[in-house]
Amino acid sequence: QVQLVESGGGLVQAGDSLRLSCAASGRSSSNYNMGWFRQAPGKQREFVAYIGWRYGSKGHANSVKGRFTISRDNAKNTLYLQMNSLKSEDTGVYYCAAGSGILSIDPRQFEYWGQGTQVTVSS
Fold first, then answer.
1. Cβ distance 24 to 118 under 8 Å?
2. Residue range 69-99, pLDDT digits in tens
3. What is the Cα–Cα distance from 11 to 91, expressed in whole angstroms?
4. What backbone phi and psi angles, to 5 degrees, belong to 80?
5. In this structure, how many other beta carbons lie within 10 angstroms of the beta carbon of residue 39?
6. 71 phi and psi, to 5 degrees?
7. What string of DSSP letters covers 10-55?
8. Of 99, 57, 58, nearest in space to 48 by CA
């Protein structure tokens, strides 16, 4: 029902910035919360940020707070993640997700997932 496609990843140096985008299509008129998650090779997936689609409530993981900012453009059905002051530990595959449940850091509240985009930060 909902298709999500991430873009904007790449290889950058520590201290640089990237903006990730997530384009949504095939959506109904219902409300969807949106989130960003990331996963390094051989590591567990971790929460990065979320935003309530209707009300705009935002949350960021402590590891990225003050450096990353989640935002949305409702008219374009697009989610963004602005990443500043990137560190090598930010390296991983970044996934966007959409959910109709409660606004949460729990990935189980998100039903739809994109394919991911690679972010590599070199030191």
1. no
2. 999 988 888 999 999 999 999 999 999 999 9
3. 9
4. -130, 155
5. 14
6. -155, 175
7. EEEETT--EEEEEEEES--SS--EEEEEEE-TTS--EEEEEE-TTT
8. 58
Cβ–Cβ under 8 Å, residues 34 and 51:
yes
Place of tokens 């940020």: 49
Q: Which helix (H) or strand (E) holds 83?
A: strand 78-83
d(CA 119, CA 98): 20
Give me 17's structure tokens. 């910035």
Spans of the chain, pLDDT less than 50: 29
Alpha carbon distance 86, 59 (integer Å): 19
Q: What is the largest CA-CA distance in the chain?
A: 44
Place of tokens 């900012």: 69
Q: Which tokens sit at 49?
A: 């940020």
pLDDT confidence of residue 75 = 84
Q: Would you state the structure tokens that stand for residue 11, as one six-digit string?
A: 């290889």
